[in-house]
Amino acid sequence: MHEAEQIQEEESNGWADMFRGIRGVYTILLNVGIGVHAIDIFVITTVMPAVVADIGGVEFYAWTTMLYMVGTVMGAAGGRYARSVLGRRRSYVGSGLIFLAGALGCALAPNMALLLIFRMVEGIGGGLLMSQSMTLVNDLYTGKLRTRVLATITTTWSIAAVVGPLIGGIWGNLGIWRGAFLTTSALTILFILAAWRVIPDGEPGDRQRLPIRRLLLLGVSVVLVGASGQFDAIWTKSVFIALGVLCLWQTLRMERGESDLFPRRVLSLFAPVGTAYWVFMLLSASYTPLTIFMPLALAVIYGLDPLWIGYLLTVFSIAWTIGSIGTAGWGEKWTRIVCASGLTVTAISIAGIALTLSDGSIWTMTILMAMAGLGVGMTNVHSIAWALAAADEDQAQITASAAPAMRSIGIAYGAGMAGLIANAAGLTEGTSPEVVGDALVWVFGFAAIVPLAGSLCVLRMYQLKPGVKI
């Protein structure tokens, strides 16, 4: 681990310093690992029409994404255990192997049932990859470099938002949807080989006991919230979401001892890291309604075809990247300002979408989507860096490794609540421009409140531990 210690001792913090020497190799490898996971998320949405046309199972169309998310949450939450058993290098490579097994299984699946099973396996591998990557960020980077590498990770997600649909579209047009998963598998193999050669080895920690009951309960929580979208009745949706919240609460209540899935006092508004985790969850929940329902609005109200919809939505991702990279090197005072105000910008932008949805131009929607992404990027990178800096020394690794799990929980809950509001507002009555416009005004109105709550949580975390420097 001599390379890692040298990295932490160096004081250079410029953008170019991330790509010098062995640090540059780590930076590239981290982004490749996250890129493999991100590309796969965008690939599946593109090839699913071809999948159901070939092997059937259209009634489970949405479950390929939902079960992947369930696996991601469970994998990310179990990242600390994997590292305690295998050490740094082997846990990272093992995560890639699990992801590879899932991708190959999807490529060879003869029916929807097996595809869904392997999608969940793939999600577990993806969650583990995210968890191990965040832990490496915590281990190998400090100060401004940590903020900068988090910003480059955001860039990787934006690139994946362009590359993923392209890969899926090419194979879909060729009528060979399995080729998309084989492409993902090939990229994963290259990543595994590079990780084995490059990642500094580390001794396994004190062996943890795998918290199986809590992992399963956490997975059930996400399944219940995700499954609520399969029902039209509002009361059925409400019951499923309520049960999901209850399972999450029970999971967090059971958090004790050395094998915690989350940092101590997670989601406590009286603990700095707990408050930061509220920011992670609310941030994810705030943009999820946009990613789910904006394509419907663009298709029905504005008459755009799927290709243009997909690439118009990349405006959000690109703006997110600009918000992250553009503010990553700012001083301490301005960092706090942009982190606290970013989600407020997002809230105002989403409220603008709600108010102009039916009579605004497509250019208005594009600008507002860009502003929403910009605000998310401003808060996202700095809130993560702050949480890693604020964590106690014995909680640093779990704070880093569990962050992706909380982000995924926020996505699941944001999707569930948005679906509930959409149905309550009348979306089940049809997909005419009038019905869609009236229903989505309520959906985006709700989505505008969530980031405001996130902004308040940013102010609260600064108040609880004002001396933290990132």
Quick synopsis:
The chain is an all-alpha fold.
Structure description:
This protein has 470 residues and is an all-alpha fold. It is 79% helix and 0% strand. It folds into 2 domains: 1-209, Growth Hormone, Chain: A (Up-down Bundle), CATH 1.20.1250; 260-470, MFS general substrate transporter like domains (Growth Hormone, Chain: A), CATH 1.20.1250. Helix 9 (234-253) runs antiparallel to helix 14, helix 10 runs antiparallel to helix 11 and helix 10 runs parallel beside helix 14. The longest helix has 35 residues, at 21-55.
Layout of helices and strands, plus pairs?
Blueprint: H1 2-9, H2 21-55, H3 63-77, H4 79-108, H5 112-140, H6 143-174, H7 178-198, H8 212-227, H9 234-253, H10 272-300, H11 306-327, H12 332-356, H13 362-390, H14 396-424, H15 433-464
What distance separates the N and C termini? 23 Å
Number of strands: 0
- Would you tell me which CATH topology of the largest domain applies? Growth Hormone, Chain: A
**What kind of assembly state do the chains in view correspond to?**
single chain
Our count of helices gives 15
Give a quick account of the main beta sheet: strands, pairing sense, barrel closure.
none
- The Rg value, from CA coordinates, equals 21 Å
Name the poorly predicted regions: 1-11
Number of domains: 2
Name of the CATH architecture of the largest domain: Up-down Bundle
